[in-house]
Design a protein that fits this description.
- The protein is an alpha+beta fold.
- The protein has two domains: 64 residues, no CATH class; 245 residues, Transposase Inhibitor Protein From Tn5, Chain A, domain 1 (Alpha-Beta Complex).
- It contains eleven helices and eleven strands.
- Strands 1, 2, 3, 4, 5, 6, 7, 8, 9, 10 and 11 form an eleven-stranded mixed beta sheet that branches.
- α1 packs across α10 and α4 runs parallel beside α10.
Amino acid sequence: MNPAKCDAVDYIQFLVAAQKRFTCSEAARCQPESPQAPAHDAFTRLLRRQPPGTEALWQETRGLVRREEGVLVLDDTTLDKPYAKRMELVSRHWSGKHKRVVWGINLLTLLWTDGNALIPCDFRVYDRPLSGLTKNDHFRRMLEVAEGRGFQPRWVLFDSWYTSLENLKAIRDKGWFWLSQLRSNRRVNPEGAGNLPLATVAIPQEGRQVHLRGYGFIRVFRTVSKDGDVEHWATNDLEMTEQQRESLARQAWGIETYHRGLKQCCGVEKCQVRTAEGQRNHIRLSLQAFLRLEAHRLSAGVSWYESKANIIRSALRDYLAYPKYTLHPTA
């Protein structure tokens, strides 16, 4: 058997450098000139032969996190695939970007952050027809894997989609604190007054302790934005202050920043391979490309966008020094 002409690092570095096109064909066109340069099929085969699972991501992540500090943030995002209805893993999902249901691939990520670093530690691709697992199943399994890897986060942060009693109890059983938004129709019991919708309960600015039906005592907060939007937050840390809640909410927003960077800088949505195996491997390699940009941001203070722009600037300098496309003088 002939040796492979490209490996995972070749593809990752292509994702780091590419600006708009993130296809296997473009990866082949961008390779340094060589008699043995990989062709487009070499990258397609690479995406098929990569080992399944997320272990390769964790091997690169483990040196960037402090497992007994920081917080874990879990959320999902939809990778837009509007013209790929025959692509495996593509189905209808709600998109926070478009505010409607769209065609795409749903990606769940477990992110570690200390308020500055944004480090993806684990991920899952939602594909219930094939795996039989719901998003909540993936949620609990990723937390179990994190616990097995030695994580002892101060808090676990997530949105209201994942606030099922089974999820909340699973986190409590690990001895961890959680903080999440809670839907306004959840039933709580304030001071033995009976179970009432959360929206109807009086909540002072510093928060209030109530009993969540089926779970136990929690502390709830209510925030009102400048636009008048009302949000309810809940935690099993009964001593949490409003200042702590606000600080943790800012850290939870880091996963939205991560989602934007992953899509805009690493081409996670742009793969055109049709197989589920190829799509999963492209997603994992995109996360590994993001890790390189994030590690550089943390060490050099250069944003992901500036790092990618610097690659193009270098190419522009070379071209401007020796322009290729000119017009002969007519005078």
